[in-house]
From TrEMBL:
Residues 222-294 form the Cation efflux protein cytoplasmic domain. This is Cation diffusion facilitator family transporter. PANTHER family: MITOCHONDRIAL METAL TRANSPORTER 1-RELATED. It is found in: Membrane. It comes from the Bacteria.
Length: 298
């Protein structure tokens, strides 16, 4: 058995990327909060709230990756990989909470007249959208390369922040162009942004929950593994192929049918040959449990 349930370089890379996101969000929180307060823009303040939740959830992700990287122990023989999708679920819950808070405050501000936001808030928002989109693309790339739901969730949280900022930019622009009577456009923009955030929360939650429930991973895993197994002599049929994802890696259960007259030693050697062939072509697989049974007579 390998020593770790999470590849060290993947864990370190994910943690480093997450820490960068936390530092960027800390700066943006201060900038957006100050600009929103001075510029009389609740949409920008809502955006600052979103950055605050980004910091909290990115911390969850960072902690989740650290836990997932721990070696298997007596109480966790399969490793700690489930901490990674659990962190992603916490991100989705935090996003939902932020969306509800923003929606409630937006409705209250729509009902209460206020001044038009200051023009300089548009410059701040344009910069935020650019920074957040760059951050999203960078973290999403790391998430795709490491196949980590937690890192992907963190990336989408940054994308939701960019969307919030973009809608705020549109809302403030409408308020400034329209003048008196359009003051609430800023608040309607924040309300619209809350809807996008809810959508992103579900987008993050669904695959992570599936992973915790040992849902079969997306893709043609079964067909690919069966094709590799059948290249080994004496393997007549793959009777069962089960795949589940834990953190960055995968666990596989295979039931192979071989000629019934083979010895136990021969069956053992076939199982090892199949395991080696699969793990050579599928390095993301952590372990394979193979059951040998006699081939059915036709």
């Amino acid at each position: 058995m390998m020593e770790q349930s999470l590849k060290p370089h993947q864990a370190k890379r994910g943690q480093k990327t997450t820490l960068i996101g936390i530092l960027v969000n800390l700066v943006l929180l201060l900038v957006k909060g100050t600009a929103g307060w001075l510029g009389n823009s609740y949409a920008l303040i809502a955006d600052a709230i979103e950055s605050g939740t980004d910091i909290i959830t990115s911390t969850f992700v960072w902690l989740g990756l650290r836990v997932a990287a721990r070696k298997p122990d007596q109480n966790h023989p399969y490793g700690h990989g489930k901490a990674e999708p659990l962190a992603a679920i916490l991100v989705s819950v935090a996003l939902l909470g932020a969306a509800i808070l923003i929606a409630v405050e937006s409705i209250q501000n729509i009902q209460a007249p206020h001044e038009v936001p200051a023009p300089f808030t548009l410059v701040v928002l344009a910069g935020v959208v650019l920074v957040k989109e760059v951050l999203f693309r960078r973290i999403a790339q790391v998430g795709a390369e490491t196949d980590s739901n937690a890192i992907k969730a963190d990336a989408w949280h940054h994308r939701s922040d960019a969307i919030t900022s973009l809608t705020a930019f549109v809302g403030i622009s409408i308020a400034l162009i329209g003048g008196p009577g359009y003051e609430s456009a800023d608040d309607w923009a924040a309300l619209l942004a809350s809807g996008f955030i809810v959508f992103n929360a579900y987008h993050i939650f669904r695959p992570s929950f599936g992973e915790l429930m040992d849902e079969s991973p997306a893709g043609d895993w079964k067909a690919e593994l069966e094709a590799i197994a059948l290249t080994i002599p004496q393997v007549k049929r793959v009777e069962k192929c089960l795949v589940r994802k834990t953190g960055f890696e995968y666990f596989v259960d295979l039931h192979l049918e071989v000629p019934g007259e083979l010895s136990v030693w021969q069956g053992h050697d076939i199982a090892h040959a199949v395991k080696e062939a699969i793990m050579e072509q599928k390095p993301a697989i952590y372990d394979i449990l193979i059951h040998i049974e006699p081939a059915r007579a036709f």
